[in-house]
Design brief:
- The chain is α+β, with helices and mostly antiparallel strands and 290 residues long.
- It has five helices and 15 strands.
- Strands 1, 2, 4 and 5 form a four-stranded antiparallel beta sheet that branches.
- The structure holds 2-amino-4-trifluoromethylsulfanyl-butyric acid and cobalt (II) ion (CO).
- The site of 2-amino-4-trifluoromethylsulfanyl-butyric acid (MF3) has 12 residues, from strand 4.
């Protein structure tokens, strides 16, 4: 990192002098780095303008999920959900980020019951009474990325499955409580993992959250199975997702050999996930995808 002079323009592009902009924060970050902690590099710290761009993108993202919430019903195929996302995103001037991402064939991920994530929508997969489905919407607007997902319950869901969905939702809240500058991502991870465990559930280890905003998936990788006091330091301007995958049974997963995408629980028990995109602020966080 090039050392900036106090009176040089700040690296963030605000036009302000470094000493009145990010200098104090950089010095504090440096202290943590010297103690051996993982710290964010400048390129993952967003400016207020960039956060506004992500906020705008998030508006589309939320509107799409709200519309799915209105329309989803027993008898609908996940292929129909895909068309809804694709059409609505275009109509609002956005781009569906999943389409063609690493070759992903559709515009949204729809993950039903024992599918953990990355389910591929299909006209053959008809939603039925008792299903739980995660719909994961990722949106690009004016070059800015937003990412969020919700669970939907169809008809009469078994009470223990309903409970899984509720606890997965609570995991977001207990995680958010740990999001503030100078905490670590591991503080958030442990709070989430403890909450899942306390309820008899497990958290998927291999797949997690991510930085987001200027790209679909940015640094850091956000785990929900690491320990308090570890992982990257949180500082204002970081934007990332919280999206723990909570399994009713064991944490083990496997990927479908045929499509290369669909992730299943190894034991066939259901899995639930909610996802939010957030920005770390001066004293806590702002949820962008609500
Ligand atoms: N939306 C997922 C996430 O939360 C990523 C899906 S990648 C895709 O990170 F290609 F399957 F869309
Ligand atoms: Co995500």
């Amino acid at each position: 990192m090039k050392k900036l002079g106090r009176n040089d323009p700040c690296w963030c592009g605000s036009g302000k002098k470094y000493k009145t902009c990010h200098m104090a924060m950089d010095e504090r970050i440096e202290q943590y780095a010297l103690q051996g902690h993982m710290v964010p590099s400048h390129d993952i710290i967003k400016t207020p303008e960039q956060i506004e761009g992500i906020r705008q993108s998030s508006r589309l993202n939320i509107a799409i999920l709200d519309e799915i919430e209105k329309q989803i019903r027993i008898g609908m195929s996940t292929g129909e959900i895909d068309r809804l996302v694709s059409d609505m995103t275009k109509q609002m001037g956005g781009i569906a980020a999943p389409f063609n991402y690493d070759g992903f064939p559709k515009s949204v991920c729809t993950s039903v019951n024992e599918v953990v994530c990355h389910g591929i929508p299909s006209d053959e997969r008809i939603l039925k009474d008792g299903d739980i489905v995660n719909v994961d919407v990722s949106t690009i607007y004016n070059g800015y990325f937003s990412d969020s997902s919700r669970m939907f319950l169809l008809g009469n869901v078994e009470p223990e499955t309903r409970r899984l969905v509720e606890v997965a939702r609570e995991c977001i809240d207990v995680g958010l409580e740990q999001v503030k500058p100078w905490n670590f991502l591991g503080d958030m991870a442990q709070a989430i993992n403890d909450h899942a465990k306390k309820n008899g559930y497990s958290i998927v280890r291999e797949i997690g959250g991510h930085g987001v905003g200027l790209e679909f998936h940015e640094e850091p990788f956000v785990s929900y199975v690491t320990r308090k006091g570890t992982e990257m330091l949180m500082v204002p301007g970081m934007v990332f997702t919280i999206e723990p995958m909570v399994n009713m049974g064991k944490a083990d997963i496997y990927i479908d050999d045929n499509d290369g995408w669909t992730v299943y629980t190894e034991d066939g028990k259901p899995s639930a996930q909610w996802e939010v995109t957030l920005a770390v602020t001066e004293n806590g966080y702002e949820i962008l995808t609500y």
